[in-house]
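User: Can you predict the 3D structure for this chain?
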Amino acid sequence: MDCPKCGRYLGEGMLPARCPHCGANLSNPTDSIRGSKAAASRKNVEGLTGIGKGNTQGKRRRYFQVFVGIVLVVGFGALLYYATSGFGTEGELSVPDLVGWNRERAEEELAKLGYTAVVEDVLSEDGTSGLVVSQEPAPGTPRPKYSEVIIRVSSSIAMPDIVGRPWSEVQSELESLGIAYEATEQLSDEVDGTVISSSIASGSAIGRDAVVQVIVAKRPVVPDLSGLTPDEASSELVTLLLKLATQDALATDGQKVGTIVGQDPAAGASVEVGTTVVAKVACSPEEFYANAATAVLDAIYNANPADDAIGNALLPLLSSESDVAGKGAHDVWWELVKRGGRFLDQPAELQSLPRSIVSTDLTVDSEKRQVTAEVTVDWDWSGLPGAGAEGSEDTRTVTLTFDDEGKLVDFFDEQTDVPFFKVGE
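Assistant: Here is the predicted structure, written as structure tokens:
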């Protein structure tokens, strides 16, 4: 049958609702038989020609098939990757034979196989450098991926003996040998600039990546403590492994009381570790002489006189102006404190009682460089046979005279260092 509009042949049997060539409507309301046949075949014709909605069931099936194919391809690729890489397993790889290879090639080969190279430098026997001379594990040994393989690489450079040598000399030698180094100073009693230690032992092979850690001696240098307080000076000296001792000094014009105005050793001196630096601390005249008197009283009345202990304690406190200057400890005690044996008629035990200070009241006359002290002393009688008492307490007036450096010139205690008691009772 031909299309009534374009004349194209449409075949026999059921007709389409529209002409596939010109799109003419072929349904005729007056022709019920022809119209019903056209309507019945419309769906199939639209699916074949692409005109209209078409058949969607076939499209969904094709999409699903494509999706399944993609999933299978991706899954197979992932499986192949994990199988060849040994992921999650120790694998069946074996260590390659690396002996004779240069270091770079050996490391690249191990990395390609998934191993971690651990390089150990060994001194070459034939002068070669940079070649693998042995390995661990041996070639052919099964080894899990990501494990370590040790390769020993030859080096023609041996670490020189540098300990105890001057750093300037050692530094030149290391540079001439092409050995990398890092030098660090450390406080020490050794001569300045002497090498104390090396991180690589003498005679050991020096590898390409080796860096020698060298420790160089540095003797402490005394800093300038002028103007610092004793606490500040002590903190600074501690960092240099030095110690601090203080001495009183009369403050002069422009000097701040409580600060350091002198020191020994002097600033800039190179000393041994542990050296004590003696610092002079500025004091007011009253404080200066009061401190000097306290030191003398402590030596005499906070003591046990056995073995001339009092005389020994007074010797460093004694002025060169004193009548007993230059004499021994026993003479200083007896001639300065006991006044030449004024109480020699008393038992020797009574003249040598242990004693301790209970309280002290000082009056300072800085112009005369003199201190008057009211000292209460507790005397220990426990070692005196037949004394009948364990101890006694008395208060005495003591006069002390000093030179301008705070050293003891004269000492006077009417009772010397014998306790007050009544004779004949």
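Confidence is low (pLDDT under 50) at residues 29-54, 83-90. The chain has six domains: 1-50, 55-85, 103-155, 171-201+211-218, 230-283, 286-413.
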